Each structure stands twice: as structure tokens, then as C-alpha cells.
Amino acid sequence: MLAPHPPGGSHRRGYSGLGKGKVSQNVFDKDAISQLRKALDVRESFESGNVNDEAQPNIWPPDEDCAILVSKLLTSIALALNLDPAYLSHTHSQQLDQLRLLHYPPFPTSVLRWGEKGRIEAHSDFGTLTLLFQDDAAGLEVEDTNEPERFTAVAPVKDTVLVNVGDLLMRWSNDLLRSTVHRVVAPPSDRLNGEARGEDGWKGESGGREMTKARYSIPFFATADPDTVIEALPGTWGEERPKR
Ligand SMILES: O=C(O)CCC(=O)C(=O)O
Ligand SMILES: [Fe+2]
To answer: Which CATH number fits domain 64-222: 2.60.120.330, 3.20.20.370, 3.20.20.80, 3.30.70.260?
Structure first.
């Protein structure tokens, strides 16, 4: 838990996990309150407030570590391209990053597999690099860069960060580094028994009662400072490989 609500009720900011809170507003008797607290509410929450409220400072997940990792990756990429090590990382000095907290609720597998509803359609990310933290729910797929429409499942690996190249870095590297088209669908393990499309949709033998479990993921999108001039990086173009 990266942004925990402080213990007690006075600093009302940050994240409270399931079963951490209990509203006891209309109960005043001490014994009754302690009795009530034994059965904690099944709820999680995140609280924030006015940025100028000094008495109640907001508590956000730290993103400094992500920015440091992005900087290290950019340094490695610069070295691999025979550039000055800081060539790319110094363009991220303003850290105009975006952190997205994603929750895909449990959903009937037949609806997801038949494509009536999706989790996230095929797309590429727009910045330079994306760090993706995912749980063990699976369902992420990447498109084959040589064969459009052919997707491969990306199995989640515990305690790892998945890195995607974004469109800006692809443009900048004159398409040497390709941005990955990716999507989230029902995981392969959720194939339906006797999978087949009935008259009323893709239901399988069980009549479409299976549920695909919830998925949580956190992408961290990095991008270059707005005054960065994006033109094909030295070494990524030449007679054989003209600038795009
Ligand atoms: O849930 C995921 O892992 C993918 C999220 C994603 O691709 C995005 O938000 O751009
Ligand atoms: Fe994405």
C-alpha cells in the first residue's frame, strides 16, 4: 500500500483498504462502539482534498521511484544507440508523467470473449516509455509487430515491471524502437467449456455463467518536456534508412 490513510480518524487523506474503516457516527456508548468496530465495513476508499489545506495534506502514491526507473531506462537506451548517456533522460527533467490506477471489475467471460464489451481496446501509448505494474489476473496481449491483428498473451510475472515503448519514442528513434500495440481481453485460461457461438452469443456449455476475475493494473506514462525537439535521433537514420 503506497499511500496509506494515517491511523486514527483525524487526518482524512489517503487509501484505506478493505475492512479498515467503520462509521460509528450515531453510536456514543463506548461498549457499543467497540462492539460495532468488531464487524468492519467491507469497503476500500481513497480520500483527497484541497491542495492548499495545510492541516490536511494530501497523500499520494510516490511516483519518484518510477521517474528514476524511467530515467535509468532512457540512459540505457541512449547508450545502446551510441548517444550521450543523458541525451534522452535530460529531456524528461520536468517529469510530466501520468499515473493511472485501473480496475477492471469481474465480468461474464462470454461477453468479454464475444467482444460485446472489452476491457481495453488495442492501442499504443503516446509518450516515450510506459511502466506497467499488473496483478496476476492476466489478459494483457501484445500485437506482433510483423503481423497486424496477431496478438500474443503476456503472462504476468510477479514483482516485475513491464515496459512499453510509446509512439513518441518510436517517432524519435525513426521507428527503430517500435511502440507496442496492446489490449486487455479475457485471459486465455478463461476459455469457455465447449466454446461456440450460440444463437444468442458466445456462451459455451455452461451457458455463459463463468466470470472473468477482476484485474488491477497501474500504468505510469512518461513523456518528454514540451520544448523538446523531436527529430530522428543521430544514428537512427542514413542513406539506407531515411528519416521518416
Ligand atoms: O491494464 C493494462 O494492463 C493495460 C492498460 C493500458 O494499456 C493503458 O492504460 O494504456
Ligand atoms: Fe496502454
So the answer is: 2.60.120.330
